[in-house]
Amino acid sequence: MTLPIDARPLMVLRLATSPIQEIGSTPEGTLTIFPVTGGSFEGERLRGTVLAGGGDWVTARSNGTMTLDLRVALETDDGSLIHMTFTGIRDDANGYFRTVPRFETAAPRYAFLNCLLAVGTAEIRPEGPVHLIEEIL
Amino acid sequence: MNTRPLMTMQVKVARVLDVGAVPYGTRRIAPLDGGTFEGPRLRGTVLPGSSADWLLLRPDGVLELDFRATLQTDDGALISMKSFGLRHGPPEVIAALGRGETVDPSTYYFRTMPRFETAHPGYSFLNRLIAVATGDRRAEGPVYTIHEVL
Fold first, then answer.
1. Summary mean pLDDT of chain B
2. Is the CB of residue A21 less than 8 Å from the CB of residue A32?
3. What is the pLDDT of residue A128?
4. Cα(A24)–Cα(A89) distance, rounded to whole angstroms?
5. pLDDT confidence of residue A31
């Protein structure tokens, strides 16, 4: 028996980044850091701003893909803080850019974020990366 | 989110090691005694020895799963699989699972996010994909329906 899987929208995350920091060739690949200077997130159940101070550690691999490792802090419009991380794969040759976000919060109102898995579909727009994040039901 | 079937995986849990109270919760380790996987593009066996699920019961009642397994395809390729997952549900359902009873998997949340690594050219597509899985905890071990995220 195979079990179905379903998802529902969680948020749209828009990130603003400052000039990249090119670390260069490392044992894992070519590492570039994208500092996050701000941004916004919005969904039915939560909305607010991305705080400056996070970043995305992007490693270009020998197979042509990039792996992402992001951590940022979100502040909701009612003042709660949410720690968000994701790993992901960006494969420009195949138009594939997907992430696996995780959330941690101490705010009871947003505790549901501690208990869910999510998948993000991302695209790079002129104003910066935009992530459509869905909760795995 | 669009997905397509990747494989169904059935693993056998040999025994569960109770590590006990650790700084972040209660740790248990479930070594795998092997298993099988089958999908349209790959099939084979789960190798015992390096395959296990490291379980952490958090103070909020959510079980975090840190699963690692080595897969061997029917044509001899080795694939390393790692997945992070969450399992939680109503107390009575979780208690029934703990007693080894058969429980309808739709009554609790058991989802994982597998990632794969392989050097075999025939399976290199696995290096480039994100997957999500629905789990079904049976007495002899979990069954995962793994979907590729398109």
1. 96
2. yes
3. 87
4. 19
5. 96
Determine how β-strand A7-17 pairs with β-strand A29-42: antiparallel
Given an 8 Å threshold on Cβ–Cβ distance, is A3 in contact with B105? yes
DSSP state of B14: -
How many domains are contained in chain B? 1
**CATH number of the structural domain spanning residue B17:** 2.40.160.20
Residues A16-59 have pLDDT tens digits of 999 899 999 999 999 999 999 999 999 999 999 999 999 999 99
Cβ within 8 Å, pair A117-B85: yes
Kindly state the helix (H) or strand (E) to which residue B6 belongs, with its residue range.
strand B3-13
Residue entry with tokens 């850019």: A97
Q: What is the C-alpha to C-alpha distance for residues B5 and B61, in angstroms, rounded to an integer? A: 30
The mean pLDDT value for B116-130 works out to 96
CA–CA dist B37, B60 (Å, integer): 32
Closest CA to A101 of A64, A58, A132: A132
Structure tokens, A22? 């090119």
As given in the structure block, the two tokens for residue A97 are 């850019």
Chain B residues contacting A via beta carbons under 8 Å? 1, 3, 5, 8, 60, 62, 84-86, 88, 105, 109, 111-113, 124, 127-130, 132-136, 143, 145, 147, 149
Note the pTM of the prediction, 2 decimals. Answer: 0.92
Domains of chain A and CATH, by start? 19-124 (2.40.160.20)
B77-118 pLDDT, tens digit each = 999 999 999 999 999 999 999 998 999 999 999 999 999 999
Q: Which amino acid is at B32?
A: L
Q: How far away is chain A from the Cα of B108, in angstroms, using its nearest Cα?
A: 10
What is the rounded radius of gyration, in angstroms, for the C-alpha atoms of chain B?
Answer: 15
